[in-house]
Each structure stands twice: as structure tokens, then as C-alpha cells.
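note to self: dont lose this again. the chain is below, predicted strucutre after it. 274 aa total, dont forget to put it in the shared folder this time
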Amino acid sequence: MFSAFKLVFGLALGAEMLLAADPAPFRVCADPNNLPYSNQKEQGFEIEMAAMIARDFGTHATYLWYPQRGSFFSKTLDSGVCDAVMSVPEGFGQATTTRPYYRSTYVFVSRHDRNLRINSFDDPRLHHLRIGVHVLGDADRTPPPVQALLSRGLAHNLVGYSIFGNLTEANPASDLIRAVMNNQVDVAVAWGPLAGYFARHSTTPLDITPIPADPSNPALPLAFDIAIGVRAGNYQLRDRLNKELTRRAPEIHQMLRKYGVPEMNLSASTAGGY
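---
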């Protein structure tokens, strides 16, 4: 009888301890050197978002740092070492994605004192200017705006800057924006969140101009809806995150504005959520 009592008491105590234990953390895979998104100092809007979501989930966020290039998704999300990647294009093929939480576009960047105000790939002045662009180091992955510029015979005007830099360089994506500041190029074409963030921290006033759709190739994607990616088929977490993104939308947009992210209206097919 005594032994049975101890067994029952022990089981009850064990269950109570399990209930009192901390819930599993919200595990995020992120780039260690990729502002305005994330870095290993736990800075960037992805980190702020992850921390906010984790608090709402009653837990805390932990991070697995891995450079976001090449085999990033196979080494991180697909291998099960994290639960989410905070920024992926909506409908991305290597993950199940949430509803998008913002939409941004490629932009032109120029010095304010140059008063260029270029807002089209067809601006004739581009044929006489040095145009800075981000390159990915992979001939099969030419960014859409570079495709648009090449189609207009502007190959000799392009100056490429690696978006990845080297392993020791902080914020390698900023090199392109710094080239505009230093007059190494006359104008740059960059992804909006990168351009907006580094322009905001520039000591030289810069103009950021969203690029409209390419009239000669309307199917060329220049704007993207950005979502959170979870492991393929993890619909339970996706649905939980969707509710969080809807509930926290005002705070998320305020966060994006703080980081200088140029936002557009979400595309009509996704604006209503899931």
C-alpha cells in the first residue's frame, strides 16, 4: 500500500514538474552577418520579430547561425535544427510559407545632391552612367533588375558588388550603397530593405526610388511578398504564425519602418491572408 502511494505520488509530482517546465524555444535559423535582417549580435528586424513571437508563444527564441546562401535551407530548416526562417518569398519552394507580412521592391539609389531621380530602366541617362548592382556569384541566378538592364544593352555600364562579401567583412551588402555615397557609381539598383536600411545610416543624403514593373517584360519579378518559412508540411506552426502575423501586423509594420524597409501594398491575391 505504501509503495503504491509513493508510485502514485511520484507520477503526479513528475507530471506537475513537466507542466511547470519551460516550453520548447522558438528555434530560428538566421544569417550571422546580414543586416537589416539579422546578425550574430542578435540585431535586425528578423531577430526583433522572432523575439516578439516567442514571447507571445510563452517561450524564448534561440538562433542557429548559418550564412544564407547555397545550401542554407538544406543545412538548416530541412535538417530539423530550427523551426523557422523569418524572411522568405511567399510560396517559396523550399519551405511551407505563412501569409506574407510585407511586400517590397527593388529601388534606384542615388546621391540627393546629384538630383538624378531616375525611376525607370528606360531613362536614357542610364547609358551614360555607372550603375552599381548586387551580384550573387552565380551566372544562373542573375537578379531580375540586372536582367532588365542587360536587355537594354547596358552591360558595359554595370559595376558589380558581391552581396555576400567575404567572411570577415561586416554588412557586405552595404558596399553597393557605400559606392553611391563615394561616387564610385552614379546610381545603384538594390533590393529595397537593404537599400532603405543602409541609406538611413548613410552620412550622405541618398534618394530611394521604387522601381515600377518593367514595361518591356511585365512578368519580370521586381517586387516580392515576404513571409516566414517553416519546414515543409508543418501546417500547425504555419497556422499559429499566421494568427500571430495578423494580430501583430501594426507592430511589425512599425518595426519595418524603423529599419527603413520600403513597403508596398501586398498583392491582391495574398492581402486577405489565409
